Every structure is written in structure tokens, then in C-alpha cells.
Amino acid sequence: MAASDNELFRNIDLRITRQLFERADTDYRVYAAAVLDPHASIPVDRRGELTVTGEMAHYDEGTMTKMDLLYDEPASRRYGKPSYQLKAVHYGLPQDAAGQWAFLTQALAKSPATLSKLVEAVPPDQKILDLLRDGTLLDKKIPGVGEKTLLKLQAIVKRNTDLSVLMAAFGDRLTPIAYQHIFDHFGDARRAIKQINSDPYILIEVGGIGFKTADKFALAAGVPKNDLRRIRFGMQYVFATEILASGNTFASIKYFTAKCQDALNVAPVDISPQLTPDAAWRNGFVVNTDYRLVTTMAMYVKEADLFQGITKAEKQRWPVLEEKKLAAAITEFEQDHHVTLDAQQRQFLTTANMRGITVLNGAAGTGKTWIINVFVQIMRDHNKRLTLMAPTGRAAKVLRDYTGHRASTVHARLGLMPGFEFAAYTRQGNQDVYGKTDFVIVDESSMLTTDLAWEIVRSVVYEKRHLIFVGDAFQLPAIGPGNFLNDLAQCPAVATVTLHHVYRQGAKSGILDLASTIREREDLPFNAGQPAYLFGSMRLYNQRDEVTIANTLIAAYHSLWADNGRDTSQLLLLVNRNKGTLGRMQMNARIQQFACPPVPGQPEYVAPYVNSDTEEPDIFRIGDKVMVLANDSRAQKVDPATNQRIVATKDDEDDVDITDHVDITVHVDYETTVITNGDTGVITHIDPARHFLVVNVDDEFIYFSFGGITTKLALAYAVTVYKSQGGQAAHVLIGLAPSGNMVNAQSFYTAITRAEESADCYGDFGMLVSRLQVVPIEHRHDLLKNFLSGRLDVDTFGQQPVAAMRDVLAPLPQGAPVKAETTDTGHKPKLTVEVDAALLAMLKQKKNEK
After folding, report:
1. Which residues form the UvrD-like helicase C-terminal domain (predicted)?
2. What is the spatial distance between Cα 301 and Cα 296, in angstroms, rounded to a whole number?
């Protein structure tokens, strides 16, 4: 039968056949499903299948469920089969014995031994789920089925019962996945209903439900737009999406009020009273009445912590390696390598050895990596230990390759989960992760957000080790709030060594000369009217047509690929957007056609839907160069010899876990590692039968299931400039769309300095000349810079001191001692021990008696 768009089909029994798509960091998923009733009046394909899209739980293959579905004509064309939007999931339990046993059979599909023992112990005409719900089975001793398993089965029964109660109470005012989040948060449907009816904005506390969902629900329930609760939560939402998302950590009260007014559709009079010092404090904000500024309490305390940590580190001045030994080591290095270090290089070596915190800043080609390598060699030769980190896996790999020393991502070293910056403020950092390390070195520090820098600075015990930040303050700022490296580099109190002399010369000088011109804001050596600018290995071609630019880039990439033995590892194509003729997706698809074509008999992954930009299904093949698109702190490792996941532990069958829906499965732990957004690798194995592929990422082989894989991996022959930070390639090709979107002085500077040997750029010179006047770093503002400069004082910015804010955000346990700040600036302060006064008097008396 045919269906019209937005036609609703109710109570459709489905069996999930496979996952087609999963959007990173959300609950949005797409599943292929088979309709169980062959007589159901709903359009399906010739195999009896359809596609379901929407926010929903993770469903394993074979899961059976009942849904209300809304026909979606555009999605049907996209997925090539009848497609539906999920409107409702019918929870609850079957009322007849046969239905209850069928439900239990599904729940124990992966624990057949447990199911068999229950079948033997309970007659088939009894309602097994009712027996679980009222506790009868818990009182009955069933051989081979432990109490732990029965309690988990009972929890499944309660979950489904309570979900049906929630849906009966609120209907389609919330999504099906929202009901699951609510139950997981409250643990009981009736308690949840009572609290939500009392305060709809309590939904914001539920994981997976944000302000927009809670606000829509509350307004539908009749909450006025100017309700105080709505204003309070709405202000936090606006600050996160408008201020922090723009890279700033504070805003003027006037600007913030206007943004809140627009987003919440209220009058300024509804916002202004909530931004007085006292009201702002109650709402989680801090205001400065002198400058009329506002920030959140959490962001303010992080920046205050950063300032105080940097100040504390700056006071620590002691040599890790004796100064005479360092001087001798420098002389020996110069003699052995027939080089003479300049004054800045010597200054860095001695400063980093002496100061608690040091910044090494410098433009491309000034030898930052080289002098870091010298520092690492000298310190390792003298048995000093170092920890090397970078914000991304790509940058960590470059650092490791240059120094020959192990390097990791900041997230992996500090054990940070993806999205950690949205977690609640905590007082303690990860201060025990460095062991006996003497130096902590962080490369590509321009990529550090305020949140990540805060985690690093507070993780170091400066009485034991020194911290070194390395980077180029003119590269693109971090994708997130703050301007950390630039703030430090401009602070006179922080020991900053800036390298100026350019050492990369010869054919590369054209790249570095242009980079220096952009960095120093000098007049550009080309204008809108000339056809090209050619200097050394820096070549710019004035092209205004997007199709011509794209075709030229592909031809240039093919030529370089052929000239370099068909090796793509030293080739990098950079673009400034994801979609369109000159976008990342289309450029990758075109390069893949010749760089990694299909091989007869070799498996490949073909996405089950058409990419709306390329108008073809996304394809992954063995040998493809790919990039990781999402952080994963528990990426599963694979043995490359067997292409099997490496098992860490396997529990007994009775020790079972409840999955995201209703399955109970035997729990298996696999060895894991951390991969980060921007890591690159090569596909080494594809298994179409078991729906997974393997990627070699930095010499670790990582498992990726087919479900939602295009949100986790992307081809990486072409990448955006933002994604290229921290990486290098011998030959770089750059294509700039005529619109100039995302083109500015820092992005172009970052793009051309990725090249080690040659850089070729194609774009409209008129657009480029105009956009190179834009420097994002000048438009970011944060409080840390103002604290470091002395313009603002940490404890007088607002009406309350920082200590009071910490008590609000992270209260100390009742009676817990507060650790006093040490003012000792010497190396390894002496241990002080408090002695009981009465005991001391007794000891003195004993001594006098003797």
C-alpha cells in the first residue's frame, strides 16, 4: 500500500534488524526493522522492512518492540525504503502468560542457560513477570539462577511498567527516549511525575534532557514565559550557547540581556532584575558593577583557579638539573652536533629548568620542536623524567615522532571523559597521574580551551615538577572558550620565551615568509588583480570559480600522489567547509576513486543510505585514510593478527548487566584506549558478516561497529583547516571557496604552516585579501587575561570572594579541614607536623626532670 507524508501508523510490532546511523553525542539513531505482522497495513519494502528514525535507545539486533510511526517521505527517498519517524514506544508488560514468557525470552536472548532454568522451574501457564514483580521468584530457590540475576530481571519489569506510567501521564509531550532518561534519573515513575508536575524545569537535571526540551514541556504545561525558574535556567542556556560557544568567557550585561531577550522571547524588564549582584549570585552568575560584566560562577571560578595556579607555579623557582650540569650539557650538545644555540634557545633551556611554569612561543619555522627535542635529550641523558602531552592524537603523534619520546593526549593522560567541560565543578584535579615526572610538556597549547587548561594547571604539584607550554599563539584559537596561550604569552609575570629567528630556509622560505607577513600584519605581497603569487614553494593561484578550483585541486592531488609513489601519508588537502563542491565530503569521495579504488573480492563498507551532499552512499575500503570524528575514552582494541577484540575479563553468566533496552547479556570487558576527535588512521580490516571494521590509529588497532559509523569516521584525504591543527605533511593543497566562509588570518596562517615542503593554494585573491584582515584572536575576551594583567582582581570582581563561590559549587564535607595555600617559594618545602600542646608540655617536663 502507499502512504502519504505525515500519516500515522499505531501499535506496529517490529523486530530490529540493524542500526543504520547514530549521531555522535546524541540519542538520534536510525534503525532498519522488520514488521512482525505480515497483515499490518503499513508500507514496507519487498523484504518486509522499514526504517525508523528519531531519538531512541540503543537496540541490539533482534530486539522486538511496539511503536507508533509517522511516515516520512523525504527520509524514504534518502534511505531507499519506506521510512518513519518514531512518535511513541509502547512500554508496559503483556498481561497473558504466553506474552510474558515471550517478553522474558527476548530479555534473556543472550543468556539461554538462565532462560532454560527458569522454564524448568516455573510452569508455562503462570505469569512469570508478575511473579518477578511481586517477589515470588525471589523467595523461590531456583537452581542455577542467583538472586542477582532475579533482581535485575525484576528491575527490567519495574522499568517497563514505570515507563508506561510515565507515558500515560505525559503522552507525546516528551520523546520516548526522554521517558527512559527520566526513569533512569528518578528510579520511580510516581515520584518523577510528582516532582515534574511541581517543577517542570527539574527535567534539566535529567541527563540527556536539555533546556530546550524542558522549556517546551514547561510552556505546554502553562508555565508563563517570564516565570522566574524559566528565566534562571534560560540565562544559563543562553550563556552556554551564545557566549561560551563564541570563545568568550564573559559578556557585557547589556549584550547578554539582549541575547536572553531574543532567545526567551521576554522583555528586558524580565531579565535585568536577575542580573543585580545578589540575584545573579542566586542564579549562578557573577557580575561586575564597575565594568557592567557578567559570567557564570563556574567559569569564573575556573579562571580564578587558573590565575591562582599560574601565580603559584610562577613562584616556584628551583633547578631540576643542577645549573652547572645543564651548562655543561648544552656545551657538549653543541660540540657533538656542531651547532651553536642562539640566546633565545639557551634562555628557554635554562628557564624551563628553573621556573615552575614556562611558555615557549614562536612562529612556524622558528625551531620550537627542535629545541624541545634538545631539552628532552639533555634531561633524559641526566635521568630526568618527562611527560609529553598534546590536545589531540594527531599533535601527540607529531610530538612523539620528533622527540622519540612517548606522548599522549591530555584527555588520556588526565583520564578525562569526552564532554568533561560540562561536568560539575570539582575542587581536586588529577595530581597523582605523573608519577616521578620532573617535567610536564604540553605541545600545541594554542588549542587549549579554558576548561582543558584549568585541568592541566591544577594537575601539577609545582614543588615536585615544572610545567612547560609550547605553541604558536597566532594559530587558530581553541574551539571553545578562552584564549589561554595568548594570555600567558602576553603576561610579563609568566616566564615566556618567544623564538623569532626563522631557521627553515631554502625552498621553504616562501611559505614562512608569507606566514610571517600575515602574522606581523604587514602588507600582503599580492593583490586582487594579479593571476598568481609564486615565491619558493609557496604558490597561490587566483581562481574565482568554485568548480574550477575543485577540479584543479583534484588534478594537483593526483599528480602529487603519483609522484610520491601513490602514498597519501605525506599529502594533505585543506578546505574551509564540509559540504558543497569544494567541501570536505565531495573532495574525499573524488580522491578515493583513484587513491583507494574498489578491489575485486575485497570487502568494503557501503552506507545503507545516500549522502545528501555527494548524492552517493559513503564507502570505506581497506587502505582508506580516515579521521576519528568523536572522542571515545573506551575505544575497544583489536588484535591485528586475528582481528578480534582483545578480551580483558569475562564474568560468570550469573553476573549479568541490563543493556539500554530490555536485554540481559553476559558482560564482557575488552581492553580499551582513548581516541580523540581529529585522530587519523588507516582501515586495515572490514568484516561485512559481523558488521565491523578496524582502524590503525597511532599503532593501536581500534574496533568500529557499522552502526552509526559515518558519525564516528570520515575519509581524511581532505580535511578542514580546523581539523588539521597539530599535523604536518610534506605537500599541502589548499582550496578556498569564494564565499570566504571560515577564512581569516589565523586559519590561513595555520593552513600554510602545515606544509613542510610545498604549499599550493587556489582561491579568489580579492576575497583572501579582505579576509586576511580578520584576526579571531583579537575578538576573543576572557577574564584570565585581565587577571594576569592586573586590570581585574580575582577577589573584588564580584561582591563575593572566590572561596565563597567554591563553597557553592563544590561544598566541603561537614567539618572537613581546608588546606591552606603555601607561600613558600623554595624547592620541596619542609614537612611540618602539628603536635598536641599537652603532649609537648609533658615532654618538656620530662626533659627538665632529667
Report:
1. 715-757
2. 9
